Amino acid sequence: MRRVNGLAAICRAVGGVAVAPSALGNHAHQHHRLFQAALFSTTSNNNSSARSHWFSNNSISGDQTARAAARTVAGTMLFSVAATTLVEEVHAKEPVQSKFRPKDVVLYQYEACPFCNKVKAFLDYYDIPYKVVEVNPINKKEIKWSEYKKVPILMVDGEPMVDSSDIIDKLTKKIHPDVSPDSVVKDNEEKKWRGWVDNHLVHILSPNIYRSASEALESFDYITSHGNFSFTERITAKYAGAAAMYFVSKKLKKKYNITDERAALYEAAESWVDALNGQEFLGGTKPNLADLAVYGVLRPIRYLKSGRDMVEHTRIGDWYSRMENAVGVSSKIQA
Ligand SMILES: N[C@@H](CCC(=O)N[C@@H](CS)C(=O)NCC(=O)O)C(=O)O
């Protein structure tokens, strides 16, 4: 069975997870038509992983403007507040030496997908130039050639790599072909915290950035004002998207047993600072893969209210600033 399910698309996109339509409840159902105006996907439940195909045009009826807005917001809904870091102060970055210099690296992504941002943080830190192809989440035509239908996908000199953590593992092996034996203890810590990012931290993000009506609007205001929207599309996308995500975030809270999303975010931030154990980075004087992973997934929310609150109410700010310095400017190049 296939059905229109814009909400799964959004939450999957933002937090890398999907919510079953049945989990949406009556309240959300009443807003279904509104959501349809902005965000659609079809979800096939023919397997347990509920593989989602975003924004199937076949299943959508309605006026073209709303549909166009839906498409556009889908492409940019995850538009990262990370972009604001580009207009922030430009930091000097410590050059990272590596013999690994691929000629052609292409990242297929959604701009604010936390997993894509994790890969970008890695590429930026290692000064690996990469081109970005923004994938259209409706038809995913940019990745038609790929059997794997999620992002990020990274092409490295023609070799496709998928899954953010696997991509980073593969690139790390290429950058550091010799693993030092005395790094084993630290590697365990690094591994543990990288797992924590994928299995815990990412799930806290959506409930926070869509926590209240005003925060959901702030998130979508940012998303739509940085995307390529006409006035009508912007308004449609902003309000319908914000409404949709407000309800989705409540379901995600339940799914991940989060009672107070802010408390969960602060607790995560504090646990991370505790893990640093007084060091500059988990990696010591330089970021390791866990530092890059935490930083990468937090970048999209850092300058939204939830990110500002997190920095104000926890001790994570100093580490975050150090990471901004260490990662430095983006090594993205024109496609
Ligand atoms: N485990 C994967 C998760 C990737 C993922 O869920 N990406 C989302 C975007 S944030 C996606 O492509 N969703 C679209 C879909 O599943 O159809 C990773 O770390 O790369």
TrEMBL record:
Instruction: Enumerate the InterPro entries for this protein.
Output: GLR_AS, Glutathione-S-Trfase_C-like, Glutathione-S-Trfase_C_sf, Glutathione_S-Trfase, Glutathione_S-Trfase_N, GST_C, PGES2, PGES2_C
Specify the pathway: Lipid metabolism; prostaglandin biosynthesis
Its recorded reaction(s) are: prostaglandin H2 = prostaglandin E2; prostaglandin H2 = (12S)-hydroxy-(5Z,8E,10E)-heptadecatrienoate + malonaldehyde
Q: Please tell me where this protein is predominantly located.
A: membrane
Q: Which Pfam family, an example, fits this chain?
A: GST_C
Q: What is its EC number?
A: 5.3.99.3
Q: Which stretches make up the GST N-terminal domain?
A: 103-179
Question: Where is this chain's protein located in or outside the cell?
Answer: Endomembrane system
**Stretches assigned to the GST C-terminal domain:** 221-335
Q: How does it sit in the membrane?
A: Single-pass membrane protein
User: Keywords assigned by UniProt?
Assistant: Fatty acid biosynthesis, Fatty acid metabolism, Isomerase, Lipid biosynthesis, Lipid metabolism, Membrane, Prostaglandin biosynthesis, Prostaglandin metabolism, Transmembrane, Transmembrane helix
CDD domains from the xrefs? GST_C_mPGES2
PANTHER family, sorted: MICROSOMAL PROSTAGLANDIN E SYNTHASE-2 (PTHR12782), PROSTAGLANDIN E SYNTHASE 2 (PTHR12782:SF5)
Entry's family note: Belongs to the GST superfamily.
Protein name, per record:
Prostaglandin E synthase 2
Species this chain originates from: Rehmannia glutinosa
